[in-house]
Amino acid sequence: MMKIWQVFWQFFTLGWISFGGPAAHIGYFERTFVQKLQWIDSESYARLISLSQFLPGPGSSQIGFAIGLRHAGIIGAFTAFIAFTSPSFLLLYILATTNQAQDTPWLVGVTHGLKLLAVVVVADAILNMYKAFCKERNSAIICMATAVVLLIAPSLFIQMSVLIAAGIVGILIRKPTEVISAAMPPRKAQGKIHYLPLIIFAALFSGLPLFTQSPLWLTLFADFYQSGSLVFGGGHVVLPILQQALGEAIDTDRFLLGYAAAQAVPGPMFSLSAFLGADLLVNTPLTGALIATVAIFLPGFLLVLGFHSAWESLAEKPKVAGAVWGINAAVVGLLISALYQPVFTTAIVNPVDMAAVIVGFFALRTMRIPIMAVVAGFIAFGYAIAL
Questions:
Q1: For 121, 284, 323, 365, which has the most beta carbons within 10 A of its beta carbon?
Q2: What is the chain's pLDDT, residue by residue, as a tens digit (387 residues)?
Q3: Is residue 328 part of a domain?
Q4: How far is the C-alpha of 93 from the C-alpha of 91, rounded, in Å?
Q5: Domain span at residue 184?
Q6: Torsional sign, CA 206, 209, 213, 215
Q7: Is residue 68 part of a domain?
Q8: What count of Cα atoms within 13 Å lies in the side-chain half-sphere of residue 352?
Q9: pTM of the model
Q10: How far apart are CA 335 and CA 330, in angstroms?
Q11: Residue 46 DSSP SS3
Q12: What SS3 state is found at 5?
């Protein structure tokens, strides 16, 4: 029970301050669960990141789900999801049901301050991961090449192609002796694929479209489940997929308001489903928000349950470990590109913002000031500039 409470408190706290999208969430998780709490080592954490890149669904939430699974079992996994998602769910549900834009000056200022914090956190995570996974010249080259390619040609197809290419390069150039020397200590039991979650995933994916004339709540579940099953590359990709799935069921202006709000609140972008679900089931908005949220997250979590253990054990085999080595280096490059777009470009709008980021980075990295104190500092900064 103590572990469950630990999972809840850590993820609930992060759910209120995790601005900046998936890249920032990876940074917050790395600082909290790898550096501070040591619930997971850096190599295993990197493997979770690489797994989330190849599965559809909300990448950062899948990582959090897997961390909760490792620390406190299946209950811990769902506790992590509920705790991390509930702040953004609550904020977007309130917005949907009160029809307010939530654009008061002080709130806009605080949100801006926390976006600046995201720049600091992502930059700190990049340095930590670079030191861990780009120790050799070849891995540093993979990292640099990935960042350059994704900065020049940012797209989901290019991102997936670069990660696959990095894995192939890792297999070809990483010597078995290097892989063995860098491998994790052997575990007592080899992981395996868990087929029940995958069967449930496939059954729902293929069966739900048949219920087109069903009650509205089931149609809502089907639409959001199908969307969550097809989203590769993070929360922003969900926009066109949901637009296509919902069609004319929701007004375009309301849809864009919810999407903009989802980017302004902390936590996962997939929490947009809470806003849309509340709008679609107008007579029972809370039920609609809950159904849509569960449905859009469920596919990604079923896939994590199916492949998590197998991925961990497969990653210890020489060829697979070589591929993971290459992918890990590429993920660092991916984070470097994400630091610029969207984290840096959406947060820093003037020299004062840049100065605040420099001070915050120095405080966190050099002065070792606790992260919550840095959070408080950026909140105060955002509030002050809004006055």
A1: 121
A2: 889 999 999 999 999 988 777 778 988 999 999 999 999 998 889 888 878 877 878 888 999 999 999 999 999 999 999 999 999 999 999 988 885 555 678 878 887 887 888 888 888 888 888 988 898 999 999 999 999 999 999 876 787 788 889 989 999 998 765 554 444 444 444 568 899 999 999 999 999 888 767 788 899 999 899 888 877 555 555 665 676 677 777 777 777 777 767 867 888 888 989 999 999 998 999 999 999 999 999 999 999 999 888 876 776 678 877 887 888 888 889 888 888 887 788 889 999 999 999 999 999 889 988 877 888 899 899 999 987
A3: yes
A4: 6
A5: 2-190+304-386
A6: positive
A7: yes
A8: 7
A9: 0.72
A10: 9
A11: helix
A12: helix
In a domain, 256, yes or no: no
- Structural domains of the chain, count: 1
Query: What amino acid occupies position 31?
Result: R
Selection from 193, 200, 229, 205 nearest residue 307 by Cα: 193
Half-sphere exposure of 239 (CA within 13 A, CB side): 14
Cβ contacts of 79 within 8 Å, gap of 6 or more: 4, 7, 8, 11, 68, 72
